[in-house]
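Table 4 source record.
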Amino acid sequence: MKHNFFIPLLAILFVCISCNQNVPTQQVESISLSKASLQLTVGQTETLVATTNPQDAAVTWNSSNPMVAVVVNGQVTGVSNGTAVIVATAGNQLASCVVTVGDGGQTGSTISYSQYLEGSEYYVFLMDDEAMKRIKGTVHDYRVNGEYASPGQPAEGVTATMDIWNSDVTDANFGKCKGSTAFGDTGVEWMFWKSGSMAWNNMCGGIRQWGMCDFTSVTSDFNFVIIYRTPRMLAGTSVTVKLYSTSGGEHNVDRGMISQSRGEWDVAEWSMADLFADGLDWSTPIQGNLTNVVYTPALVVEGANREFEICAIFCYKK
């Protein structure tokens, strides 16, 4: 993997590519869904129909946010108010449907984000100081405190960096915006990432934990949260979220799709129980030797002229 300076990033997403036993991956030409969007109430169900070419291709279904909507063989059920993206995958082809759940169609803009500061314990990877002051529970601060450009090691005292690779993309950039955060704070800064007019079909980067990190107290009753918005993302753009184990190497758990927030703050949330069941291993403390690099998270954004802003990334126990 080639590392360069990174940035905060992303919006909508590309989910787990399925293992297709009926048709080889390279032979699946297309997949489409019967609907591009759904509006459900809590408990309501509706079935999406996937059409593939060839017709006998196996289809895998995933939800970007199972706490909002779940899907089983195309049947979508509303779980709680919010937005999720249902993704159907056949071979290396995918199609998506944006699902809004709530009375009258509640969107990310109506989420009460203060609830995310009222948990009992936190591992924080990105968050502004004002929001940090309002957290009511115990806080483990693993926030980004530096930038990184390969080759080499981070500057002295830097424990977490924003990385980006695809180094020859000259107009990709990241920086800080000011305004009103998802938590209602004004005049503070958050990060943005812009892919520019790059020729690559995707760009990768992430929050890199360099060492002396201990996530062993994170148990299955925690959730992993990304609060974000997408001021400039085109329809069909996907953002793949990846989480790495602390045991070293690049073992990761691919967590599916972040939805387009249409310029308003939105949230993606995953159960650590599900992440651990998928193979994520945080049972080994990082000793600070710069070898057990962990991305919390890494992200892959597809396409040029995309912009992704991140208000906060953290793992918390309610």
